[in-house]
Amino acid sequence: MKVDDYRIQQQTFEALASGAGGPDAVRELAGAERCKHALLLWGVRTLDEGSGVTSGARMARTGYELLTKVQRHDPASAAAIIRYPAVGAWALHAIRASRGRMAMPGARPGQLSAVAAAAAIRAGLPAEIEVPVSTTAGMGEGDGLVVLPSLGVASVSGTTATVRVVADGDSTIESGGRSIRVPASPRQDAPGWRAVRRFRAGSLELLIDDLDPFRMPAMPNVAPRLTGAQFRAWIATLHEAWVLLEHHHGAAAAEVAETITAVTPLVAQDEGHASSSSPEAFGAIAMSEPPDPYECAVTLIHETQHLKLSALSDIVALTFPDSGLRFYAPWRPDPRPVSGLLQGAYAHLGVGRFWRQQRHVASDALGLRAHIEFARWRAGAALVAKTLRSSGQLTQAGSDFVAGMVRTLDRWLEERVPAEAQVRADHEAAMHLARWEQANGPVQA
Question: Does the pTM exceed 0.85?
Answer without folding.
Answer: yes
